[in-house]
């Protein structure tokens, strides 16, 4: 079958791909119902499986543009609207939602989002101070009414920041200069991304990694257009949420230095430093011990209370072997980081897609060999890789990102000017000219 509809109303290859995609998403969602022991996961899985099944049926049975719109509506309803509204109204979610909202209340009353003497796992706040800002609406509105619960839930504001960053980064690439226009149909591809399990699941049950991914993407998009100061501020906001955003700063600086010159890279670093100091330093000075223990020691398994991030990844399995295994995991982590850093110096990324790929590679290395981690962490690099291609229209293996217009820096591959040749008009016999005989 080819990509266009054949006579007789047979299903096209495009329809088959949509059916397969939605059906696969439905099987993934049903797996949470069958295997997960967490109530929010099971609620999302049951609702999303129904929505994805309806989307697969619509994509296979309907024809024309109506098939895709009905399928997308079914997926968004089942995987996002219904579980998101239900979980927000009931207050159910992963434990980090409560941690963020409690940290916001602590920040407003004591000036620090960290408990002085945490005892249980939920007493630890493994996020940097910027994450507490998402819980301020809940601290101000309370939970006395359904409207307050909806508008105060931190997941809502995490979703808002993600959407603004995804759309904003795409707009930056579209308006940034000639020769590179983002792919058409942006609203459709964005809706498909939101409806997919990659975004819909964390959006409904947790949400904490979504603003981090959005801000990293926005920072890379700004860097791809030579806006070093704005990129530094966006990445400072990301680093004020979780320290795992630090590799994005190195990738953005390498992109700016290679495409626009050292001055833009230094401008990015300066703006990032100022932003981090303004967002993190006040809390760090007020409670330095609590910040170090809860933000750095706890996620890496060095605190008195064990972290729940215990997926059987290589770093975690090595750490369980004892001190030798832990040192081996740390050594592999350092070697992987050095390899990515060397690649940034020797072959800096050219364009947003290449930068997103390089950042995703660095994050995957960190998540694989960290002494503690979760499979869910890989949603961040996967989201960066997928959206960078959807937003720019660059297919896997394409090289259109390599020729972005450059500002302020020397071009890397300017063609050598050829000497202009003197044009010699060819001799045309007079008898062949019009009107001549």
Automatic annotation (TrEMBL):
Chain positions covered by the region annotation Disordered: 401-421
Record keywords, A-Z: Membrane, Transmembrane, Transmembrane helix
Entry superkingdom: Bacteria
Transmembrane segment boundaries: 15-37, 43-62, 69-89, 154-173, 185-208, 228-256, 268-285, 324-345, 352-372
Signal sequence, start to end: none
Compositionally biased region (Low complexity): 402-417
Protein name: DUF2029 domain-containing protein
């Amino acid at each position: 079958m080819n990509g266009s509809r054949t006579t007789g109303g047979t299903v096209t290859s495009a329809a088959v791909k949509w059916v397969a995609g939605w059906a696969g998403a439905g099987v993934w969602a049903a797996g949470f119902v069958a295997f997960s022991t967490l109530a929010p996961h099971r609620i999302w899985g049951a609702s999303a499986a129904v929505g994805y099944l309806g989307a697969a049926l619509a994509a296979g049975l309907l024809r024309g543009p109506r098939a895709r719109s009905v399928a997308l509506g079914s997926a968004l309803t089942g995987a996002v609207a219904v579980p998101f509204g239900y979980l927000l109204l009931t207050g159910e979610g992963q434990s980090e939602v409560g941690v963020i909202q409690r940290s916001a209340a602590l920040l407003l009353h004591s000036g620090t989002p960290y408990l002085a003497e945490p005892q249980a796992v939920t007493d630890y706040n493994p996020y940097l101070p910027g994450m507490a800002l998402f819980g301020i609406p809940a601290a101000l509105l309370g939970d006395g009414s359904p409207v307050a619960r909806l508008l105060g839930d931190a997941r809502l504001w995490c979703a808002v920041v993600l959407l603004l960053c995804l759309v904003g980064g795409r707009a930056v690439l579209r308006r940034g200069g000639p020769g590179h226009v983002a792919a058409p149909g942006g609203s459709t591809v964005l809706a498909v991304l939101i409806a997919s399990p990659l975004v819909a699941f964390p959006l409904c049950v947790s949400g904490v990694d979504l603003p981090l991914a959005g801000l990293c993407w926005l920072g890379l998009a700004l860097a791809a257009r030579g806006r070093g100061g704005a990129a530094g501020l966006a990445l400072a906001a990301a680093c004020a949420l979780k320290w795992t955003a630090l590799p994005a700063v190195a990738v953005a600086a390498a992109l700016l230095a290679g495409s626009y010159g050292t001055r833009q890279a230094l401008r990015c670093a300066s703006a990032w430093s100022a932003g981090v100091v303004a967002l993190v330093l006040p809390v760090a000075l007020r409670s330095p011990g609590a910040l170090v223990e809860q933000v750095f020691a706890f996620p890496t398994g060095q605190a008195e209370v064990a972290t729940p991030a215990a997926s059987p990844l290589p770093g975690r399995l090595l750490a369980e072997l004892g001190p030798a295994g832990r040192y081996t995991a740390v050594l592999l982590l350092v070697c992987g980081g050095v390899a990515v850093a060397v690649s940034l110096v020797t072959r800096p990324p050219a364009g947003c897609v290449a930068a997103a790929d390089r950042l995703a590679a660095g994050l995957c290395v960190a998540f694989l060999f960290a002494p503690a981690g979760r499979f869910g962490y890989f949603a961040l690099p996967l989201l960066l890789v997928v959206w960078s291609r959807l937003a720019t229209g660059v297919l896997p293996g394409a090289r259109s990102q390599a020729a972005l217009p450059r500002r302020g820096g020397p071009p890397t591959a300017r063609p050598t000017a050829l000497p202009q040749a003197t044009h010699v008009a060819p001799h045309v016999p007079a008898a062949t000219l019009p009107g001549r005989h």
